[in-house]
């Protein structure tokens, strides 16, 4: 009974945004867009079904900010108002029964299959490793003007999210996509203000957040999905991740979803966890415990839960 009461208890974010309970659906890449990358009736039905089930908060999967840069075929793209009526139907269905639906915005950077792009972009012209170079082309390093354009795309897409009637937006900053690439010393070896030191590598995500905040206003929720670490040699470390969380928290971000790993090192597919972690069920729970000390935003851990008792503990 106590577990049920705890999980069903409401939650208020640091900007006053209210959730009816503690159940959260993390983003999944549905690949249910049309050939022209608009939301389909399948997405409307899927999220309406989840909303009717009683969940409090859901993240869409991988909505791209640029139709020239797709992570997978049939990704949904939100870069202008051409499909806004379809997005409105999606938002309405996903917010039945008191549920809230946020849009996860993403740019894949170099993490684009070669059949979709033979010349992707990234912070630096460094290919993916671990055998993935056969499926993903070597990227071209972004110019500073292009970096600014991408930041503005995140901001403009966020404004369209709000216009379409969704209740929040999430930056995809994990799993080796563009924001994650900028944070990683393995993939970001720039010598300008966007690379080098951890502070410079953090600049891109901070500027994305600031531009989005200016676009949607102070009251509209913004969250981020962020790696606790890349789990790769010379990759983004736990200490660096903690510094990013602290910086974003100081900027006023409302929710931080903790994840980890990349295509090169998919941590959540590796079940080599400590026994204490297995008992607690959730992935990244020790990291989240540490993050509470530096983060004023609501924290979410992704994956691993198998029981109500595990969720409460």
Which regions contain 5 or more consecutive residues with pLDDT less than 50? none
From N to C, what is the helix and strand string?
HEEEHEEHEEEHEHHEHEHHEH
Fraction in beta strands: 5-15%
Helix-residue proportion: 25-40%
Mean pLDDT: 91
Question: What is the compact description of this entry?
Answer:
This protein is 34% helix and 14% strand. It is of the alpha/beta class and 313 residues long.
Can you describe this structure?
The protein is of the alpha/beta class and 313 residues long. 34% of the residues lie in helices and 14% in strands. It has helices at residues 2-7, 41-52, 84-93, 144-163, 178-183, 198-216, 238-251, 275-280, 285-291, 308-312, and strands spanning 11-12, 18-19, 24-25, 57-59, 63-64, 100-106, 121-122, 140-141, 168-173, 222-227, 255-259, 298-301. The strands form three sheets. Strands 3, 4, 5, 6, 9, 10, 11 and 12 form an eight-stranded parallel β-sheet that branches. Helix 7 (238-251) links the parallel strand 10 (222-227) and strand 11. Helix 2 runs parallel beside helix 3 (84-93), helix 4 (144-163) packs parallel to helix 6 (198-216) and helix 6 packs parallel to helix 7 (238-251). The model has no long low-confidence stretch (mean pLDDT 91).
């Amino acid at each position: 009974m106590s577990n049920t009461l705890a999980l069903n208890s409401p939650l208020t974010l640091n900007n006053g945004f209210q959730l009816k309970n503690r159940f959260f659906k993390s983003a999944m890449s549905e690949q249910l867009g049309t050939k022209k990358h608009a939301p389909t009736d399948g997405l409307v039905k899927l999220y309406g079904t989840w909303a009717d089930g009683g969940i409090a908060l859901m993240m869409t999967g991988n909505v791209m900010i640029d139709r020239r840069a797709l992570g997978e075929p049939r990704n949904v793209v939100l870069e202008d108002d051409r499909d806004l009526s379809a997005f409105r139907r999606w938002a309405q269905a996903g917010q039945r029964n008191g549920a809230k639906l946020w849009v996860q915005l993403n740019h894949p950077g170099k993490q684009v299959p070669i059949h979709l792009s033979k010349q992707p972009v990234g912070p630096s012209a460094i290919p993916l490793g671990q055998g993935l170079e056969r499926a993903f082309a070597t990227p071209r390093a972004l110019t500073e003007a292009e970096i600014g354009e991408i930041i503005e795309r995140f901001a403009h897409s966020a404004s369209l999210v709000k216009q379409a009637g969704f209740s929040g937006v999430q930056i995809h900053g994990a799993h080796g996509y563009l924001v994650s690439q900028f944070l990683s010393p393995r993939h970001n070896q720039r010598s300008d203000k966007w690379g080098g030191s951890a502070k410079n590598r953090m600049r891109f995500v901070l500027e994305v957040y600031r531009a989005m905040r200016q676009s949607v206003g102070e009251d509209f929720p913004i969250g981020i999905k962020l790696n606790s670490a890349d789990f790769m040699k010379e990759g983004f470390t736990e200490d660096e991740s903690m510094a990013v969380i602290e910086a974003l928290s100081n900027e006023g971000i409302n929710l931080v979803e903790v994840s980890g790993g990349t295509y090169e090192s998919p941590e959540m597919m590796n079940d080599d966890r400590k026994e204490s972690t297995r008992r607690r069920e959730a992935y990244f729970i020790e990291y989240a415990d540490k993050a509470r000390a530096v983060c004023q935003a609501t924290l979410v851990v992704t994956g691993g839960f198998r029981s109500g008792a595990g969720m409460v503990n």
